[in-house]
């Protein structure tokens, strides 16, 4: 998982196939494709032809964006008359303002992403949409908490034939609020309320969207190179001068 370049993902699949076991391969790409512009549909075709039994996406983008990418992957396989199981493991952060690189380019990455967190209701919708798209490996990546995973399991309980363990300890869709002392809170004890809620951030001085950093090194550049020794103070100083607030 976590491949930005389909060429590298194909190499990994080819090596793992030598184990004789089924191979699952996911890429951290969005609807724009990999870092060199290979479309999601073509990425899917290359992975399956290399021998992957399960293909999909993980990380870098929110649930809605990942499903848009998965739709392209599925269509690419159908056009090529290929079949594979589908997998989706998105972020638990809303990222509608991301570019090709995903949330790594956001100014909030990685220690200020909490205002973007998705709700459990967002994830129930994601789980249903993913299932309807034909995805059967439905999970999550960075930002997912246990209650998010529970939301997936509970939404798909009818298909699975059972609810996740300890589900009897809470009411689904806020049912337990029916016992609340405040009448306006009791009125929230229903699916329709939580499905249609537009939660506020409580941050009146913050923008609803961010401007992703664009340093022009997405495909490759000396700044992306790793080195054995620790980053020097001078190297950091040069970056600090480039990134000013």
From TrEMBL:
Gene Ontology biological process terms in this record: L-methionine salvage; methylation
GO cellular component, one term: cytosol
Domain Hcy-binding: 1-156
Cofactor: Zn(2+)
Gene3D superfamilies per record: Homocysteine-binding-like domain (3.20.20.330)
UniProt KW keywords: Metal-binding, Methyltransferase, Transferase, Zinc
Listed pathway(s): Amino-acid biosynthesis; L-methionine biosynthesis via de novo pathway; L-methionine from L-homocysteine (BhmT route): step 1/1
Pfam family membership, one: S-methyl_trans
Gene Ontology terms for molecular function: betaine-homocysteine S-methyltransferase activity; zinc ion binding
Residues engaged in binding Zn(2+): 59, 141-142
InterPro entries (UniProt xref): BHMT, BHMT-like, HCY_dom, HCY_dom_sf
Cofactor note: Binds 1 zinc ion per subunit.
Protein name: BHMT1 methyltransferase
């Amino acid at each position: 998982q976590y491949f930005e370049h389909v060429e590298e993902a194909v190499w990994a699949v080819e090596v793992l196939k030598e184990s004789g076991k089924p191979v699952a391969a996911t890429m951290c790409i969005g609807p724009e494709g990999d870092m060199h512009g290979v479309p999601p549909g073509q990425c899917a075709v290359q992975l399956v032809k290399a021998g992957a039994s399960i293909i999909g996406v993980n990380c870098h983008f929110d649930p809605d964006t990942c499903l848009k990418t998965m739709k392209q992957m599925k269509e690419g396989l159908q056009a090529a008359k290929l079949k594979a199981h589908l997998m989706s493991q998105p972020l638990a952060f809303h990222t509608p303002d991301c570019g090709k690189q995903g949330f790594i380019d956001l100014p909030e990455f990685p220690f200020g992403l909490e205002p973007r967190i998705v709700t459990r209701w967002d994830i129930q919708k994601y789980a249903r949409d993913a299932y309807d798209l034909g995805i059967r490996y439905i999970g999550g990546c960075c930002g997912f908490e246990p209650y998010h995973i529970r939301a997936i399991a509970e939404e798909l309980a009818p298909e699975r034939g059972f609810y996740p363990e300890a589900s009897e300890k809470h009411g689904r869709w806020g049912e337990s609020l029916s016992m609340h002392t405040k009448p306006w809170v009791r009125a929230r004890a229903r699916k329709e309320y939580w499905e249609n809620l537009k939660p506020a951030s409580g941050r009146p001085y913050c923008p609803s969207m961010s401007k992703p950093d664009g340093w022009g090194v997405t495909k490759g550049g000396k700044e992306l190179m790793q080195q054995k020794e620790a980053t020097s103070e001078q190297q950091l100083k040069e970056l600090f001068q480039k990134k000013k607030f």
